[in-house]
């Protein structure tokens, strides 16, 4: 998936060294009512994040998030007061049509460019919530290890956990990744009841859709098209579209790819003959431009989805790990039902 980040200004390393960072910043700055709650019997707490045990002595108070899905996980948990701000470009769709839209008015939009160490230092962050290829990137030197060296803690989006096969990502099903992050963050911020309510509600919503969805051979073959002309970027088994497609009643044609977001060859797409194509809508190339490309690209001319014009669009935030995933399942199920078997 597209990565978000860009240079700003390195200035507060010394100040942070004096005051302390990570969980220590939470304790130093937490002098009010929140600090009293943080020092109660709930803490310290330990969660497992991408195979690493992380212990928090108090709730982080100046979280910086990267990208829309990650930011909305915090908003869905009602954690705006624990945020220093968020980073994301302005190509991520309608930010007002969500149940937690107030989070966007209460929280500072720090940058529409790429997240980087200087930006989070300027924000006096004590925790960065991002992911591999969702902000964290060795090539640009912005990694959890680099942040730890300047005293800033990190939490990795579970969808982006690396699985030990090079830089391949994904260690659990996409919805389980969402539920894991909600529960982990619920524990870290002492809002476990709120997290469990969300998980229960999402599970019920998904189960209701699944009960009505096609089964077995009746499921239409579905391909997720993100971007790319020479080679398409698509979803493997560990990115959000896999569960969105399968729970909505589709047969995800790239379900055998043990990765999250990855490229494949067009010849594989043609051979698997999707009956429906889902376009990921974001970025400089519009969904309509992507549709026109798919319809005009000669190697796809005989693919069922193109021949029958069965192409649907979902927003980026629907498809990456986010609290909008269950609603996306409902939306896609309605589309697939409209097409028939």
Compile the SSE list and pairings.
Layout: H1 13-19, H2 22-29, H3 33-38, E1 45-49, E2 52-56, E3 63-66, H4 68-76, E4 83-87, H5 102-106, E5 109-111, H6 117-122, E6 127-132, E7 135-136, H7 144-149, E8 153-156, H8 174-188, H9 192-212, E9 221-225, E10 233-235, H10 240-247, E11 251-252, E12 261-263, H11 266-272, E13 276-281, H12 287-296, H13 304-307, E14 311-315, H14 316-319, H15 325-339
Parallel strand pairs: 3-4, 3-6, 4-5, 6-7, 6-8, 9-11, 9-13, 13-14
Antiparallel strand pairs: 1-2, 10-12
Helix pairs in contact: 8-9, 9-15, 10-15
Can you tell me about this structure?
This protein is an alpha/beta fold and 341 residues long. It folds into two domains: 13-201, Rossmann fold (3-Layer(aba) Sandwich); 214-339, Rossmann fold (3-Layer(aba) Sandwich), CATH 3.40.50. The chain has helices spanning 13-19, 22-29, 33-38, 68-76, 102-106, 117-122, 144-149, 174-188, 192-212, 240-247, 266-272, 287-296, 304-307, 316-319, 325-339, and strands at 45-49, 52-56, 63-66, 83-87, 109-111, 127-132, 135-136, 153-156, 221-225, 233-235, 251-252, 261-263, 276-281, 311-315. The strands form four sheets. Strands 3, 4, 5, 6, 7 and 8 form a six-stranded parallel β-sheet that branches. A four-stranded parallel β-sheet has the order 11-9-13-14, sandwiched between helices. A two-stranded antiparallel sheet has the order 1-2.
- CATH H-level homologous superfamily name of the largest domain: Nitrogenase molybdenum iron protein domain
CATH-defined topology of the largest domain: Rossmann fold
Shape: globular
Uncertain residue ranges? 2-39
- Counting helices, strands and paired strands, the structural category is alpha/beta
Main β-sheet description = 6 strands, parallel
Question: CA-to-CA gap between the ends?
Answer: 30 Å
SSE topology string:
HHHEEEHEHEHEEHEHHEEHEEHEHHEHH
Mean pLDDT: 89
Signal peptide: 1-23
Domain Fe/B12 periplasmic-binding: 62-341
Organism: Streptomyces thinghirensis
InterPro entries: ABC_Transporter_SBP, ABC_transptr_periplasmic_BD
